[in-house]
Amino acid sequence: MVDRPVAFVLGGGGVLGAVEVGMLRALLRSDITPDLVVGTSIGAVNGVLVAADPTVAVTDRLVRLWASPEASEVYGDSVARQVRRFVARTHLHSPGPLKRLLQQELGPSSTFEDLVVPFQCCAASIERAAEHWFYTGPLVPAVLASSAVPGLLPPIEINGEHYLDGGIVNSIPVGRAVELGAATVFVLQVGRVERPLSPPQRPWEIAQVAFEIARRHRYAREMADLPDGVAVHVLPTGGGEARDDSPWAYRDMAAVRRRISRSYTASRHYLRERVDGA
């Protein structure tokens, strides 16, 4: 048994976000359902679908979606086309494939108010240099904004303001769930926070390491500041792969089913040991 309200917190992590699907399957098959879903970046994509359908059936839908040609198209441009785009623009990929995927899954005119479970997603406002939470109004633009990885996708304009990926300001938003009144929080994160960092050796590693420091600092601070009476469960990924942090790892869809299966097995074991047996 868990104390309610229950929040699912889904963090960022690009293609590694497939592990969240396994975690969601483990939770829902254990009859643990959310009263609130908060997400950032790929966690916003996974999270909004769960908020629309908080049943085991949504995990089958997510598995199919992650392995679909539509998902591959999100970062599927040829390298030559990416380079040409990057010379003239600020990003490698068009937001069109992700927008079409979200419209297909949610409906082009869906709103936060249409969801079965309250949902919020985080983005970074460029003009205000601030964290911004979407929780009302049109869904698709908000999730696009939360998922606009700098350099990969362009900023998303909403009501005259431009937004980038929420992972810049709050990659694993545990604190937000607590602010919203959650008594039990299940954290679905991709595993990067568990890996040791080392000084960068190549030019592209500089930004990666800097971003990881910022991500981990915020997460560690929020975990350390948890109030008494709030239970937090950080679900396991089941292990990682060395190539996950390569510059092109975000394009690697081949390992999707393996990541889902691995995280499902590890999370089921965790829930039996730490939650069902409590």
How is this fold's topology laid out?
Blueprint: E1 6-10, H1 18-29, E2 36-40, H2 42-52, H3 57-66, H4 69-73, H5 79-88, H6 96-106, E3 119-125, E4 130-134, H7 139-146, E5 156-158, E6 161-165, H8 174-179, E7 184-188, H9 203-224, E8 231-234, H10 256-276
Parallel strand pairs: 1-2, 1-7, 2-3, 7-8
Antiparallel strand pairs: 3-4, 3-6, 5-6
Report on the architecture of this protein.
The structure is a single chain. The chain has about 280 residues and is an alpha/beta fold. The chain has 10 helices and 8 strands. Strands 1, 2, 3, 4, 5, 6, 7 and 8 form an 8-stranded mixed sheet that branches. The longest helix has 22 residues, at about 205-225. The N and C termini lie close together (about 10 Å). Residues about 245-250 have low confidence and may be disordered.
List keywords for this structure.
single chain; 278 residues; alpha/beta; 10 helices; 8 strands; 14% strand
Low-confidence stretches: 246-251
Structural class: alpha/beta
N- and C-termini, Cα separation? 8 Å
Helix content: 40-55%
Number of helices: 10
Instruction: Characterize the overall form.
Output: globular
Q: SSE order in H/E notation?
A: EHEHHHHHEEHEEHEHEH
β-strand amount: 5-15%
> Radius of gyration from the CA trace?
18 Å
β-strand number:
8
- Average pLDDT works out at 87
Largest sheet: 8 strands, mixed
